[in-house]
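Researcher: Re-running this chain for the archive, since the previous output was lost when a drive failed. Same request as before.
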Amino acid sequence: MGAPPAPERSGAGAGDRWHVEVDRSLCIGSAQCVHHAPDGFRLDTARQSHPADPDTDANERVLAAAESCPVEAIMITLAGNGEPVFPPEE
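Model: Regenerated structure tokens:
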């Protein structure tokens, strides 16, 4: 028997706009976000991450950055209605 299908990611459709936030109280400055999405994230002088543009077009690099964050400090929602993209609702 194979693995169950992966849940669909809400809000990851072409043409969608995302709002990206970093919880700076959680961020440990691992720079995984910068590694996965160098155009999407910046580290400040305190090595805290922040989105280069909080409102951006949906893209797999930003999603990969959020998924790779070791402390899950990156949240992505659909711009406009706030529907969660990552982390997904349980």
